[in-house]
């Protein structure tokens, strides 16, 4: 894969659990590019190794994204073809990468998305809730007041509300938003595409009680249906 003039930045979606959930196009790009930009090089190296790919890795962690972007832009401007990946799912969607993509576009470098796995769309497709109108909040604020106000504002949207949450905070978060959710249907999708994938349905109150009694493990996507 050879660039003419300014390089090329691919934004590559990677599996959210099951390593088979990667597209043929993504495998081709990852195998032919000059280097792979990874949120965590250890995680991305596991993916590349599983598919027999060996490419140079460049780190772009969330906490140091702004500082590392200029060096990566220099590579792109020198003509390199790079592929941006996050630990799992689609880069930029609640993951690092927006600063690099914005910088590349501002510099006249072509940016090409390679679509694929996303916890957001996987959870929505299996939830049974409406998918024609969706409000995505990413990860909620930690502050109880901000958390509740964020969800309350989202519920004013006529559609399905979706956010990501740590299993360590899941029961507490559901309990805190119960007053504003009322009897709206809630679905918690856990460990999507993995061996222990489960969908839990109920209300914020019933699920808060259930998860407080039996704390879950893994990664969760929470969906709240329209009233």
TrEMBL record:
Domain annotation Tetrapyrrole methylase: ranges: 9-207
Top class in the EC scheme: transferase
InterPro entries on file: 4pyrrol_Mease, 4pyrrol_Methylase_sf, 4pyrrole_Mease_sub1, 4pyrrole_Mease_sub2, rRNA_ssu_MeTfrase_I, SAM_MeTrfase_RsmI_CS
Keyword Transferase: yes
Catalytic reaction(s) noted: cytidine(1402) in 16S rRNA + S-adenosyl-L-methionine = 2'-O-methylcytidine(1402) in 16S rRNA + S-adenosyl-L-homocysteine + H(+)
GO-annotated molecular function: rRNA (cytosine-2'-O-)-methyltransferase activity
Record EC number: 2.1.1.198
Annotated keywords: Cytoplasm, Methyltransferase, rRNA processing, S-adenosyl-L-methionine, Transferase
UniProt GO cellular component terms: cytoplasm
Localization in the cell: Cytoplasm
Superkingdom of the organism of origin: Bacteria
Pfam families reported for this sequence: TP_methylase
Predominant location category: cytoplasm
Function (record text): Catalyzes the 2'-O-methylation of the ribose of cytidine 1402 (C1402) in 16S rRNA.
UniProt xrefs under HAMAP family: 16SrRNA_methyltr_I
Family note: Belongs to the methyltransferase superfamily. RsmI family.
Protein name per UniProt: Ribosomal RNA small subunit methyltransferase I
Phylogenetic classification of the source organism: Bacteria, Bacillati, Candidatus Dormiibacterota, Candidatus Dormibacteria, Candidatus Aeolococcales
Gene: rsmI
